[in-house]
Amino acid sequence: MPRPLVLVPTYDERENLAPLVAAIRHAGAARWPFAVMVLDDASPDGTGAVADALAASHPGEVIAVHRPARAGLGRAYADGFARALAGGWDPVFQMDCDFSHDPAVLPALAAALHDADVAIGSRYVPGGAIPDWPWPRRMLSAAANRLARAALGGGLRDWTSGFRGFRAEALRALDVGALRSDGYGYQIELAWRSLRAGLRVAEVPIVFRDRTRGRSKLSRRTVIEAAFLLARLRTASSGLAPRAVTAYGSAVTAHRQRASTPPS
Fold first, then answer.
1. Chain Cα centroid distance, residue 48
2. pTM here?
């Protein structure tokens, strides 16, 4: 039987963590018994203590991981993926803690993994939207994704989304511990590796909401690093056979939000 796990990296998310965990558990209910692994980077606001209290209240369903210092989103996810694989969790999901990713979509991502190895919550397929963003942030996100599509190909619409699900076998194939990028760059590199490995990738439409509590962690440095990463990945992609690149494009499909029975 599948053992689905949701990875939630945190830094100063004390106000959001408990409501998010409750929403994740409610979204799964009996059909999808989602467990939650909180990966806290020594938050000074006490998020780690909230994670400990949740783990004590829900043993085996909430796991609190205390990392020694703030080391970036990429390192947190690499740690979480390694722990998930070692613990036999499958499938494994990643999402933000600020409710910009709606926990109610988790069953749709899980359902998409019936036919795919990787499911990405996409703002840029039919049914996806970003209604709360001011135009500068819309322009930045759209430009980043257009640049990624132009540089890397592959047919994927939303390269920078951080709301994703993976079969365990896909994570093993991706060697996620070898990634060194962060933020936008981490999401781009993980998607690129998925397509380059020939994995089946599905996009599930999501409505991305802006956070209402806490402070955004997106920085100018993260955006600049992502731009440099695109140049590096484009160079690495230049040696790929055209047939393989075409296969990546045909592997990307859009899935409607739907609930289903767990994948076999």
1. 21
2. 0.84
